[in-house]
Design a protein that fits this description.
This protein is an alpha/beta fold. It has 10 helices and 14 strands. The strands form 3 sheets. The chain has a 6-stranded mixed sheet with strand order 1-2-3-4-5-6, with helices on one face. Strands 7-8-9-10-13-14 form a 6-stranded mixed sheet. Strands 11-12 form a two-stranded antiparallel sheet. Helix 6 links the parallel strand 3 and strand 4. The chain is elongated, with a radius of gyration of 19 Å. The structure holds fe (ii) ion.
Length: 268
């Protein structure tokens, strides 16, 4: 699966998130406007790219690895009890997930995506009972099929406290849920959205964390406000999880905590 963000997306998110103008970027990076334009048009100019990365507070090594195309997302096998669904959203895609306890066959849907047919088929095929729907955030691409999943399964839905959705119960930071032999812990990580919530699942062969648009393989979801605290809270809530924890993002391929610590340019 293709990465969610290329280098230009990453540079753009860092610049926008920090409110840096093009003029200031040129000044701080000590480059001319033609060099900036050249990078933006997709040319590889390692020295200018390194200066721009540093000026934006990004780690230059992963950026240059991506520029040289010798960076690939890791190939990860999901443990039994985890299924990923990728559904279309305009010319992009959005991921939603089913996580279940293989012993009791009780399942949790994470987000709703834009087409729940494959989720309904999986519930039937694996003889699962959907007992909860948990939402990482309220952006339209993640909740489009919420009503249909709710109607068909009658499962209660939960949304972040800071992003109330009619008919959903509020999820607080640090809240725990038990589903069969699984324990789910909610971590609130605001930044991309007001109450972006990460759901950490323990009790599977390998722990997984559904991260919504908080972090992607090699990037992060666009941050609208409070840049520094947002990055700090991603570090504190996600990058401190066990390194083998598999991260299930709302867009792009799955990754691991260890991989993001090594390769994500937004973190030192
Ligand atoms: Fe989002």
């Amino acid at each position: 699966m293709k990465l969610e963000d290329n280098i230009l997306d990453i540079l753009g998110k860092a610049q926008k998130g920090q409110g840096i103008t093009d003029r200031d970027l040129c000044k701080v990076a000590n480059i001319g406007v033609p060099e900036l334009n050249s990078i933006r048009s997709g040319r590889r100019e390692p020295a200018a790219l390194e200066r721009i990365s540093r000026a934006l507070g990004l780690r230059p090594e992963p950026i240059s690895a991506m520029a040289n195309e010798n960076w690939q997302p890791p190939s990860i096998a999901l443990p039994p009890g985890v299924m990923m669904f990728t559904t279309p959203f305009a010319d992009l895609t959005v991921n939603h997930y089913l996580v279940w306890d293989p012993a009791s066959l009780k399942a949790v849907a994470v987000d709703a995506g834009t087409d729940a047919d494959a989720l309904f088929a999986a519930l039937e095929r694996h003889k699962l009972t959907l007992v909860k729907i948990v939402l990482t955030h309220g952006h339209g691409d993640h909740v489009l099929e919420l009503d249909r999943i709710r109607e068909k399964t009658k499962a209660p839905a939960f949304a972040p406290e800071a992003e109330p959705i009619p008919g959903c119960k509020a999820v607080k930071n640090g809240q725990h849920f038990k589903v069969g032999g699984l324990t789910i812990t909610a971590h609130t990580v605001p930044g991309h959205s007001a109450g972006g919530t990460v759901y950490e699942f323990r009790g599977l062969e390998t722990s997984v964390a559904a991260v919504g648009d908080v972090i992607f393989a090699g990037s992060i979801g666009g941050v609208r406000a409070r840049w520094k605290p947002s990055l700090e809270s991603i570090s504190a809530e996600i990058l401190t999880l066990h390194p083998e924890t598999i991260l299930l993002p709302g867009h792009g391929p799955v990754t691991t905590v260890a991989h993001e610590k090594a390769h994500n340019p937004f973190f030192p």
